[in-house]
Amino acid sequence: MPIRPATPEDAGAIAAIYNDAIASTTAVMYHTAQPVALWHGKLAAERSPRHPFLVTADDAAGVVGFAKLDAFDPRCGYDDIADLAVYIHAEHRGRGVGRALMRALIDAGRDAGLHSVLARITADNAASIWLHESLGFQHVGTYRALGHKFGQRHDVSEYQLVLG
Ligand SMILES: CC(C)(COP(=O)(O)OP(=O)(O)OC[C@H]1O[C@@H](n2cnc3c(N)ncnc32)[C@H](O)[C@@H]1OP(=O)(O)O)[C@@H](O)C(=O)NCCC(=O)NCCS
Fold it and tell me: Which alpha helices (DSSP H) does the chain contain, by range?
């Protein structure tokens, strides 16, 4: 399925995918749905080549997943480090969409001169850990009981992919 840069018109579909992950997974530590306007604002803002925001979409299914790189930290000494996020519609998981999006995102980040891509993954997220490790991310540590959701505290692991 084609991968392309996200546009403000994708905000509704992206919000729906993200809000479903909020409601049903520990992947994201929000407890309540986030508004479409928040995504619209992010997508309307100019993004640097180091911070691509990609979707997988076609005319039949619409947007089935998204992945993005964001600045890790505003201090200039970290300006070539990015945080990665990837979310696939529940009905389209397990079909290679996440892997293809991450590959495209990592290639774009490498081409734009990033040194490293970081990912923080809730320790019970086996699919995400497998996917990141299979793309070369290395486990650099685990924060104990860092997040709380669904009445429990959750360990969160830090992963790094060195590009440069
Ligand atoms: C994690 C996620 C992004 C993966 O995307 P996806 O499109 O389903 O993944 P893919 O189909 O590309 O599969 C990636 C790999 O994960 C493996 N996988 C899938 N579910 C798995 C599981 N429960 N345990 C272990 N591996 C699993 C697949 O077998 C595949 O490996 P392979 O290519 O070696 O066969 C997706 O499941 C998702 O959106 N989950 C909810 C949100 C989330 O967790 N985001 C990541 C936050 S860190």
Answer: 11-24, 36-44, 97-111, 126-134
